[in-house]
Design brief:
heterodimer; A: about 110 residues; mainly beta; 7-stranded mixed sheet; 4-stranded antiparallel sheet; 11 strands; about 50% strand; B: about 110 residues; 6-stranded mixed sheet; 5-stranded antiparallel sheet; about 0% helix; globular
Amino acid sequence: EPEVTQTPSHQVTQMGQEVILRCVPISNHLYFYWYRQILGQKVEFLVSFYNNEISEKSEIFDDQFSVERPDGSNFTLKIRSTKLEDSAMYFCASTIRGRTYEQYFGPGTRLTVT
Amino acid sequence: GEDVEQSLFLSVREGDSSVINCTYTDSSSTYLYWYKQEPGAGLQLLTYIFSNMDMKQDQRLTVLLNKKDKHLSLRIADTQTGDSAIYFCAESQYSGGGADGLTFGKGTHLIIQP
């Protein structure tokens, strides 16, 4: 069964560094999402992306975040200058056109900012 | 803004039914979801219900929606040790064309006693 994959599974970075989290959505999916879950807190929506542009973003998704689909398979989340409070599990999700209520999630990348 | 609440823990005996409850605040929620997260894994879409339905059954899973009280429940019949996981309730306002983000609860840890 097709799955959303994410790399790396765990990323450790120093405060102020840039990180890029990578996702490979399910191949015929056209809508892509990033969520994050700070330890002990709710899963929070960050951004959705369709047709090479952002569709919707939350208040969390400020100027230090950006998303890109650099090729036909990858979907990336970049954090320009990481802060301690960016430490979280980051989940990518994707959906198929016409069924955007069925979001399929990847296993997540645990980001630790020291 | 939208809010989704669930109790943090539920303990049941193997073979009994589990009922996980959730309340939400947004009356314009269109879809309501149950996701399952096993240790070290991503969020697995278990089932969802459209807001004009009040019940949906899928094998051992029964979802009940009380739209008036904004209450959603997930019943797992004949609970097995493999059902041990965190269960997340979520909602979205599916507009039919956009890539709507989901709003999640904190998750309910389902603990199975032998």
